[in-house]
């Protein structure tokens, strides 16, 4: 049976209807390009399509490959959201306080470094003191930013473990 490129791609799209639209479009684009390359190499559109594998075989291979690498979605217990909301005053206030402190250290360090230029021609000792304090403030702010990122990841990990142990797998509310 002879098919045009458009007919081939429509049938392939129908065979891949189980995939999400963006994933399906990626494969359709790939096979469209293969056909167009064959046409550019001198084949007619019908001959280029005729050289393609059977649509059923292509679709089966794609669907098997995609399902083999599909990442399972983690289902959370409904009480997990309640737990996260109730515990927000604890972990949320810690994160907000750290963020404000980090911003103040970075801002203060920056302003202190700028003050170096205001005093460099009048009081060199004062200027270098401002520069030193500013660099310490910037360094401490960067250090705290790294600690903040690690703490945030740690809080996420703890909440995930609580979700797994208490609500999902081995817990009392299973």
Describe this structure as you would to a colleague.
The chain has 6 helices and no strands. The chain is mainly α and 174 residues long. The chain is elongated.
Rounded average pLDDT: 83
Structural classification = mainly alpha
Give a count of the beta strands, DSSP E runs of length 2 or more: 0
Number of helices: 6
Number of domains: 2
Order of helices and strands: HHHHHH
Taken as a percent bin, the fraction of beta residues is: under 5%
Q: Percentage of helical residues? A: over 70%
Whole-angstrom Rg: 30 Å
Give a topology summary:
Layout: H1 5-15, H2 21-40, H3 45-50, H4 55-69, H5 78-119, H6 124-168
Helix pairs in contact: 1-2, 1-4, 5-6
Key traits:
174 residues; mainly alpha; 2 domains; 6 helices; 80% helix
Question: Can you give me a brief rundown of this structure?
Answer:
The chain contains 6 helices and no strands. With 174 residues, it is mainly alpha-helical. The protein is elongated.
């Amino acid at each position: 049976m002879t098919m045009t490129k458009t007919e081939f791609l429509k049938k392939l799209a129908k065979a891949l209807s189980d995939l999400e639209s963006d994933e399906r479009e990626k494969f359709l684009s790939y096979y469209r390009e293969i056909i167009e390359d064959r046409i550019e190499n001198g084949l007619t559109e019908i001959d280029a399509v005729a050289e393609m594998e059977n649509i059923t075989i292509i679709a089966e291979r794609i669907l098997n490959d995609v399902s083999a690498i599909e990442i399972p979605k983690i289902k959370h217990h409904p009480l997990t959201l309640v737990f996260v909301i109730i515990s927000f005053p604890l972990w949320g206030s810690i994160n907000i306080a750290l963020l404000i402190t980090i911003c103040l250290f970075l801002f203060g360090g920056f302003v202190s470094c700028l003050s170096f230029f205001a005093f460099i021609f009048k009081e060199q000792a004062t200027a270098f003191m401002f520069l030193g304090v500013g660099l310490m403030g910037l360094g401490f702010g960067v250090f705290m930013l790294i600690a903040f990122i690690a703490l945030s990841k740690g809080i996420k990990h703890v909440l995930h473990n609580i979700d797994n142990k208490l609500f999902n797998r081995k817990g009392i509310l299973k």
